[in-house]
Task: inverse folding
């Protein structure tokens, strides 16, 4: 034990410096020992900057716009991407090491996604090859391109102004809930009606597994392969809270991202650390500006404010929560979706309709009268009808 | 296992060496072994440090104190666990959980203090009838450009009534917080006193109070108006056990209603209501004969500038902030009465953000 003399008389009574200094020492050590680095939002910011950009020396380089797809695999035979949005674009540079024919494989794609590719403004022909599942799209190119390939994966109904439906689910905690049954039920809802897809994609609030390890993610992804529509997810505290942020970035992509589809904007923010990183907050302001005049849906894992305030299963700092909500309100966000709390709550935050739907796990909040569930959300890009949210129980 | 055996051996050696000493001789002068007992066994169970120094009576008291804390924490934690934090059972179990944890932690701190120092004989400063203070506040909140604010506060005690007002003001005007509080103290009767309403000479008290705060801040303006009710207790530990003389515990339990206004909400009726679980506990030591005090504290509330702790682990959110604070009398007669003089206060809180405050004040003498 070291006696510290942080202050000297008359600030401390001479005879009692020992008591005060020992308490000071204890307190300072305690305060300084607090920061750890298991669930660090700034680490995920660095990862977000890297997602969508990869290079295999002498073979291929891929840069996805806005980092909206993570590069799962780069080989001499092509590239495999995992999409985080219905529509993505980017550039592929090919070098001598690329063997022809080569492939662009897009996992987590819209089943009806279409590819356009150009080299120096001239169209580059690609052959669509059936994937192993509806959400796997493969395009094959006959020859190695002469220059950088500008590609865009788009939806055939991208310009359709009609309302459409998506699904929101959260807190699947694979192994602790009926994940396959939930996906099966969503597939039933998503089955095409008159040739039109009934549900375009799934948004998820995170917590896919309990620990986010490779050993847990692999079986989850195997079950996810049974889902017939794409699945765009936020990161939960169980996904990235155990020093698994790098694996998350490599497998699922960015923790903070934004995209627009058929006139509706979607912003997914990383709140897995019960806060918002200042860099993510600056990105958010840009995204809010982009969607200011459109229907805008905001998704995050941890809700800024717990509707049961005294429980505080929200942000660590309520002032941070209020700052975030005020920014969303100022930008006219239309709907906020959260997870983390294993039940369903419909409430208002900053005047914006809010839903917490942590219904993917079997052991939810007791006494709430709500079991395993997900939400369907009808979105009208014109804004004539406010987003309509319906709770769908899963037996 | 080796560590456990070593601890047992150290403890056993200590008890043997203490048997020839008078058990009423509690004061120590920081021998290394005693410090080791206070730090290491005290971390295992409150009272273990006293037990190792042969102070069975102190060990027993601290053990019960710690056990009460664990029991209270379990009474709150078990319902939360069994109901998966049900919305129907929140304030009471949440409050019991952290208050129980606080009771346990303060018992461990008391064990450390008592074993290492054996009581200092320092005592509380008399409560001044009035005081005014000005200071500075700094925060590292990264979501705002407002990091430094000025603070002003005034406090008065009249008979058993206590009133306080304070303000935190940013030079830019972007951040302004005002607080008012009115309370009534119920002093513990002094030994032999027949007046239960009189302040106990050691400064122990119970206080019931009500407060309101109004806070405007943010680039996208937020306005928070919070009404709160409190019950607080301070206990000078000299009356609990001789080795603890010179230290105190204080705790408060409260409930708040927060009305939050955001851009586009023009009237008070538009605001959104949140319930808040309020509370804190602290363990402190007195300095000299009324020269001041230093305290380590935990604050459960999340609506302060510090917010709650972020341990950067999965599941952050429910924990409150921790901090150290101090008050030091700079001039005037120390301890003899509540004579006027300058005083200095400081506070360093660690929640989601660091908040450091420094204040200089003047306290008045008797009315």
Result:
């Amino acid at each position: 034990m070291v006696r510290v003399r942080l202050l000297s008389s008359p600030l401390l009574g001479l005879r009692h410096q020992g008591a005060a200094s020992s308490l000071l020492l204890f307190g300072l050590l305690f305060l300084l020992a607090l920061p750890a680095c298991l669930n660090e939002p700034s680490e995920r910011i660095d990862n977000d900057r890297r997602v969508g950009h990869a290079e295999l020396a002498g073979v291929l380089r891929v840069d996805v716009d806005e980092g909206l797809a993570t590069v799962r695999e780069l080989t001499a035979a092509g590239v495999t991407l995992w999409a985080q949005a219905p529509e993505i674009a980017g550039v592929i540079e090919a070098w001598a090491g690329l063997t022809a024919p080569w492939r662009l494989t897009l996992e987590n794609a819209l089943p009806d996604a279409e590819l356009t590719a150009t080299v120096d403004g001239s169209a580059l022909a690609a052959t669509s090859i059936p994937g192993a599942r509806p959400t796997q799209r493969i395009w094959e190119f006959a020859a190695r391109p002469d220059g950088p390939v500008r590609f865009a994966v788009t939806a055939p109904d991208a310009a359709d102004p009609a309302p459409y439906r998506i699904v929101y689910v959260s807190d699947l905690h694979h192994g602790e809930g009926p994940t396959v049954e939930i996906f099966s039920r969503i597939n039933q809802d998503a089955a095409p009606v008159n040739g039109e897809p009934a549900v375009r994609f799934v948004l998820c609030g995170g917590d896919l597994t309990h620990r986010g390890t490779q050993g847990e993610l692999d079986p989850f992804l195997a079950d996810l392969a049974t889902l017939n529509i794409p699945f765009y997810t936020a990161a939960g505290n169980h996904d990235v809270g155990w020093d698994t942020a790098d694996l998350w970035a490599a497998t699922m992509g960015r923790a903070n991202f934004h995209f627009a589809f058929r006139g509706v904007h979607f912003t997914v923010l990383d709140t897995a650390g019960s806060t918002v990183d200042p860099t993510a907050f600056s990105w958010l302001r840009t995204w809010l500006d982009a969607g200011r005049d459109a229907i805008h849906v905001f998704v995050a894992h941890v809700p800024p404010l717990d509707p049961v305030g005294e429980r505080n299963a929200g942000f660590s700092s309520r002032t941070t929560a209020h700052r975030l909500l005020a920014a969303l309100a100022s930008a006219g966000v239309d709907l906020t979706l959260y997870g983390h709390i294993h039940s369903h709550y419909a409430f208002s935050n900053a005047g914006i309709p809010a839903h917490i739907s942590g219904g993917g796990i079997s052991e939810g909040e007791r006494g709430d009268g709500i079991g395993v569930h997900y939400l369907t959300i009808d979105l009208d890009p014109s804004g004539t009808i406010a987003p309509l949210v319906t709770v769908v129980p899963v037996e | 296992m080796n560590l456990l055996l070593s601890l047992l051996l150290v403890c056993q050696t200590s008890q043997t060496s203490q048997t020839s000493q008078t058990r009423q001789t509690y004061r120590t002068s920081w021998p290394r072994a005693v410090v080791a007992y206070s730090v290491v066994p005290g971390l295992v169970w409150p009272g273990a440090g006293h037990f190792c120094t042969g102070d069975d009576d102190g060990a027993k008291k601290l053990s019960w104190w710690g056990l009460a804390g664990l029991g209270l924490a379990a009474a709150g934690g078990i319902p939360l666990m069994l109901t998966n934090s049900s919305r129907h059972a929140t304030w009471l179990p949440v409050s019991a959980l952290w208050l129980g944890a606080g009771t346990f932690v303060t018992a461990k701190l008391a064990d450390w203090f008592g074993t290492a120092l054996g009581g200092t004989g320092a005592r509380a400063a008399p409560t001044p009838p009035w005081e005014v203070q000005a200071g500075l506040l700094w925060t590292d909140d990264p979501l705002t450009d407002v990091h430094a604010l000025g603070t002003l506060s005034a406090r008065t005690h009249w008979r058993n009534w206590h009133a306080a007002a304070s303000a935190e003001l940013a030079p830019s005007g972007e951040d302004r917080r005002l607080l008012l509080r009115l309370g009534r103290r119920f002093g513990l009767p002094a030994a032999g006193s027949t007046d239960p309403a009189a302040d106990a000479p050691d400064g122990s008290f119970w206080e019931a109070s009500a407060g309101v705060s109004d806070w405007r801040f943010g680039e996208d303006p937020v306005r928070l108006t919070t009404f709160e009710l409190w019950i607080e207790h301070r206990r000078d530990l000299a009356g609990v056990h001789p080795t603890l003389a010179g230290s105190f515990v204080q705790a408060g339990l409260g409930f708040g209603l927060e009305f939050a206004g955001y851009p586009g909400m023009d009237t008070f009726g538009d605001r959104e209501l949140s319930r808040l679980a309020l509370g804190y506990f602290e363990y402190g030591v007195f300095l000299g004969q009324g020269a001041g005090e230093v305290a380590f504290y935990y604050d459960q509330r999340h609506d302060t500038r510090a917010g709650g702790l972020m341990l950067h682990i999965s599941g952050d959110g429910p924990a409150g902030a921790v901090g150290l604070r101090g008050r030091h009398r700079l001039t005037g007669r120390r301890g003899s009465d509540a004579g006027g003089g300058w005083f200095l206060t400081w506070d360093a809180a660690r929640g989601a953000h660091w908040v450091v405050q420094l204040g200089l004040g003047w306290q008045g003498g008797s009315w």
Summary: Chain A touches chain B through 76 residues (CB under 8 Å). The first strand of chain A starts at residue 53 and ends at 56.
